[in-house]
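Section 5: illustrative case.
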């Protein structure tokens, strides 16, 4: 005797349950990363930081992205890091 097939409603509930579990796991991971980032405070940029060198690093970063040497995620992380060090008058 064959097993009865699952109903469409049951399949939808199982799929929703898996999606909810995945979203919950991603949220936990994001919170854990945010907590780790908060613990690692960036060193404050002193007046000795060469602003022209930072601009050159920005240019190289954009070139690396355009040439495909880095991923968009790495680009965004590095760009935020450079922006935090850049002093705008």
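Designed sequence:
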């Amino acid at each position: 005797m064959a097993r009865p097939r699952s109903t469409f409603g049951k399949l939808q509930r199982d799929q929703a349950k898996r999606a909810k579990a995945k979203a919950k796991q991603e949220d936990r991971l994001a919170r854990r990363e945010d907590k780790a980032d908060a613990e690692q405070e960036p060193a404050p940029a002193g007046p000795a930081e060469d602003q022209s060198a930072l601009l050159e690093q920005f240019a190289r970063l954009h070139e690396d992205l355009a040439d495909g040497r880095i991923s968009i995620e790495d680009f965004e992380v590095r760009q935020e890091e450079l922006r935090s060090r850049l002093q705008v008058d």
